[in-house]
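Hi support team,

I've been running sequence recovery on a batch of backbones for a student project. Most finish fine, but this one hangs at about 90% for roughly twenty minutes before it completes. I'm not sure whether the input is malformed or the queue is just slow. I've pasted the structure tokens below so you can try to reproduce it. Let me know if you need the job ID as well.

Thanks,
M.K.
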């Protein structure tokens, strides 16, 4: 009897230890990527394939763009150097598999946050860095002013994206027919439009602005005002990596808070002497918040100095003074009429 009681107690205690181990497991797993990046000395970041304003490479091999700058901000926060990034160009169809297989540490590639991608693929979207929406670019159709006039059109749409399903939903909901012309890349879409294989292209509005730059006779090209979907774009990590997920998430939040607090790449060092508590916590002058992320206290300061605050990144790459000339719209700060909002660093 005593032996059976002791065995039961032992089993119970063993189960208790297993439960504790299960609770600790996410922390142990999540330390992996951060430590791997530090040991390697380089962040491996998956980006898009030559999308103007978001991820493009010049003749010298230098990458630039909105998504690229986020990678650099993370590298600055984690490694102390924004140039310690190895960029991997990924297509829409291979991006998530590459992340899941560990070929990249972080995916920063105009990817839409969806339930299926996060829950079904075992991924975590760290934040919404760009609020977008799917639209239509038309060529050789000067009379069209609304997407509701696109019945019987030949529509180019990129494979492996949410745009395909959104396109089908929109035409079905409005009892219109269309012919889908699948394309693998934006370059192929531009070629198909020029050759007349399709006269309509659908994708995120931001990508349509970029695509328009590659088309001749832009006077005959129109981006319709219709928005047929919510495209919440942001960086992605693996779901078994909670600590790394938090690093990516809070780098974005730091960039947004920096804009709200008026901290820029130019005045970041001067902000160290600010008397405002929120500014001092942001730049690491007080609060000791870096240890919560496994970083030092100057992580956010380095990110802002390297890439600029959110507003600087937006305007430099896709804003009104850039080649794309996209108004900030929803991507304006919540205090300025947009929906861009970040929790405080405290």
């Amino acid at each position: 009897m005593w032996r059976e009681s002791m065995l039961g107690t032992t089993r119970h205690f063993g189960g208790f230890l297993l439960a504790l181990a299960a609770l600790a497991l996410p922390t142990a797993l999540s330390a992996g990527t951060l430590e791997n990046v530090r040991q390697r000395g380089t962040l491996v970041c998956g980006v898009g394939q030559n999308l103007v304003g978001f991820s493009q490479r010049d003749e010298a091999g230098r990458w630039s763009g909105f998504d690229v700058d986020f990678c650099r901000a993370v590298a600055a926060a984690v490694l102390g150097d924004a140039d310690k990034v190895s960029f991997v160009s990924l297509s829409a169809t291979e991006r998530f598999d590459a992340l899941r297989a560990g070929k990249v540490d972080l995916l920063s590639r105009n990817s839409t946050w969806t339930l299926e991608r996060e829950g079904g693929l075992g991924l975590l979207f760290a934040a919404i860095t760009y609020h977008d929406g799917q639209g239509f670019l038309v060529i050789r159709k000067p009379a069209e002013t609304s997407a509701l006039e696109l019945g019987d059109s030949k529509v180019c749409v990129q494979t492996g994206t949410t745009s395909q399903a959104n396109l089908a939903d929109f035409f079905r909901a409005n009892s219109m027919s269309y012919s889908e012309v699948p394309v693998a890349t934006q370059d192929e879409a531009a070629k198909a439009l020029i050759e007349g294989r399709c006269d309509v292209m659908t994708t995120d509005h931001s990508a349509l602005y970029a695509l328009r730059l590659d088309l001749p006779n832009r006077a005959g090209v129109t981006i319709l005002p219709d928005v047929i979907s919510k495209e919440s774009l942001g960086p992605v990590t693996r779901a078994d990596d909670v600590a790394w997920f938090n690093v990516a998430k809070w780098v974005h939040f730091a960039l947004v808070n920096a804009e709200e607090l008026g901290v820029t790449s130019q005045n970041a060092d001067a902000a160290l002497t600010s008397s405002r508590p929120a500014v001092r916590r942001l730049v690491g002058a007080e609060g000791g918040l870096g240890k919560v992320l496994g970083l030092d206290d100057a992580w956010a300061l380095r990110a802002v100095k390297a890439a600029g605050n959110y507003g600087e990144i937006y305007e430099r790459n896709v804003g009104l003074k850039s080649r794309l000339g996209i108004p900030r719209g929803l991507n304006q700060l919540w205090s300025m009429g947009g929906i861009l909002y970040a929790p405080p660093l405290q």
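--
Follow-up from support: It reproduced on our side and the slowdown came from queue contention, not your input. The first helix runs from residue 2 to 40. No action needed from you.
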